[in-house]
Amino acid sequence: MQLTAATTSNVPILLLDSDGSSAYVGPVPTVTLSINGADFTPATNTPTSIGDGWYNLALTPAETKNPGYIVLIAVGTGAYSDWRDLHEVTRTHGAGNPPVWWER
After folding, report:
1. What total number of domains does the chain contain?
2. Distance between CA atoms of 55 and 49, rounded to whole angstroms?
3. For the ranges 61-65, 68-72, 83-87, 95-99, which has the lowest average pLDDT?
4. What residue numbers bound the domain in which 24 lies?
5. What are the E-state strand segments in 29-77?
6. What mean pLDDT is reported for the chain?
7. CA angle (87 as vertex; 85, 93 as ends), nearest 5
8. Quick check: 104 pLDDT over 50?
9. Is residue 103 part of a domain?
10. Cα dihedral 72, 78, 80, 86 in deg (nearest 10)
11. CA nearest 70: which of 14, 32, 30?
């Protein structure tokens, strides 16, 4: 998923229960982030359930402040497996910022 730098960005997380097919109903998952290759640290916000095993995590402007990549790992106690995802943070276009491809 592509995110805009220095903004609050909502990212989806899906967890399945231990049977591998039912929606996860355990405790709120723990989320850690690796931002631009740094060590994994806890996300600022806690994910909120939106139903059927889906969660929403609001990444903060501080977490998305620099263009690059964010690796997200969500772990739910008793879940079938962890949710692992990669998000690309790009800077905004306009206001003197050319598109990223322009710099190559």
Report:
1. 1
2. 4
3. 95-99
4. 2-90
5. 30-35, 41-42, 48-51, 54-59, 68-75
6. 91
7. 170
8. no
9. no
10. 0
11. 32
Question: What share of the chain has pLDDT > 90, as a percent?
Answer: 87
Q: List pLDDT tens digits, range 28-45.
A: 999 999 999 999 999 999
Q: Which residues lie closer than 8 Å to 63 by C-beta, 6 or more apart?
A: 33, 35, 43, 44, 70
Q: Chain centroid to CA 78: how far?
A: 21
Assigned domain for 48 exists: yes
Does 104 map to a domain?
Answer: no
Domain harbouring 76, CATH code: 2.60.40.1930
Neighbours of 82 (CB within 10 A): 15
56 is a domain residue: yes
pLDDT score, position 91: 87
